[in-house]
Amino acid sequence: MEQLLQQIAAYKQEIESLANNGADSLEAYRIKFLGTKGIVKNLFTEMKNVPADQKKEFGQVLNEFKQLAERKYESWKERLESTADRQTTAIDLSLPGDPLTLGTRHPINLFLNQVISIFNRLGFSVAEGPEIEDDWHNFTALNIAENHPARDMQDTFYIQQNPDWVLRTHTSNTQIRAMERSQLPIRIVCPGRVYRNEAISARSHCFFHQIEGLYIDENVSFADLKQTLYFFVQEMYGKDIKIRFRPSYFPFTEPSAEMDIQCLICHGEGCAVCKRTGWLEILGCGMVHPKVLDNCKIDPNKYTGFAFGMGIERPAMLKYGINDIRLFSENDVRFLRQFTSAT
Ligand code: PHE
């Protein structure tokens, strides 16, 4: 017994002093200590020679020794594996790097950014407003009183929890917020998503995007509005583009107009896209109604201003040759990947 215990202590020391060298040494260690004819097995066969009253003590010492030998094997093996991993990455410099996957911009954003950059050059900055809006900013302040038939021009989504809240039906809410907040003069464009309860089809959706412009200062005239919009379409569609203004009605502008550009497909000849008229309607506009200025505590006798608003989806569809508005919101990467900032 005494002899056996001494031997075990010596083996323990041997194991602890072993360096964790390469895979060959590990295998030699395994065979020597843990193999079927190894030291651990042999010690267990010595059990029968130990006197009965010492079997328990010897059994314990032997089990501890066995565990020590196994732990050594496991940690040695783990170390070898992790250094092997490190060595491959450290050595193989010819491996290609991880590719950086570069996304593409959404066509709506590409189009919006173009519009914004044109107005930037005229001194307009970007303002944004909330998509969940209260009645005042979406309707009342814009001179659309309760029960006013103009509320039916846009089918509104109301928020169930609060009847005063709507999903904004146009970006004109941002006009009001800017006029309430900003110092004059104001020269902003307001891009964003808007919502209307319309049946979803290839031509229309229950949400879409608009960009609205607003300019308030002393002596702003309808001529300024026309010239600004003329500059915009020339920059966007080329110097030869023809435009026309038609009188129209919006509760928040007076006078109001709609602007058409000559059809980009048939150049005025008449085709299916322009419904044989030769013209495409692209935006609504007008001089900000004095009541709207008043609602925002701006003196209508001192200041005047113009506003315009246009949808993004339709012109973007024309520009990129997209024939279904639903594609914009389906997140199909095969569609989205086709657009780059260069187009
Ligand atoms: N808010 C209008 C719409 O959604 C567009 C518009 C904006 C018209 C500003 C005139 C002035 O149709």
Report on the architecture of this protein.
- With 343 residues, the protein is an alpha+beta fold.
- The chain has two domains: 2-89; 107-339, Bira Bifunctional Protein, Domain 2 (BirA Bifunctional Protein, domain 2, 2-Layer Sandwich), CATH 3.30.930.10.
- The protein has helices at residues 2-17, 23-34, 39-46, 55-91, 107-121, 135-138, 172-181, 222-237, 290-295, 313-320, 333-336; strands spanning 125-126, 132-134, 165-167, 186-195, 207-217, 243-250, 253-262, 279-288, 304-311.
- The strands form two sheets. Strands 1-4-5-9-8-7-6 form a seven-stranded mixed beta sheet, sandwiched between helices.
- Helix 1 (2-17) packs parallel to helix 4 (55-91) and helix 2 packs antiparallel against helix 4 (55-91).
- The longest helix has 37 residues, at 55-91.
- The N and C termini lie far apart (88 Å).
- The mean pLDDT is 91.
- Bound molecules: phenylalanine.
Features:
BirA Bifunctional Protein, domain 2; 7-stranded mixed sheet; 11 helices; elongated; binds phenylalanine
SSE order and pairing:
Elements: H1 2-17, H2 23-34, H3 39-46, H4 55-91, H5 107-121, E1 125-126, E2 132-134, H6 135-138, E3 165-167, H7 172-181, E4 186-195, E5 207-217, H8 222-237, E6 243-250, E7 253-262, E8 279-288, H9 290-295, E9 304-311, H10 313-320, H11 333-336
Parallel strand pairs: 1-4
Antiparallel strand pairs: 2-3, 4-5, 5-9, 6-7, 7-8, 8-9
Helix pairs in contact: 1-4, 2-4
Bound molecules: phenylalanine.
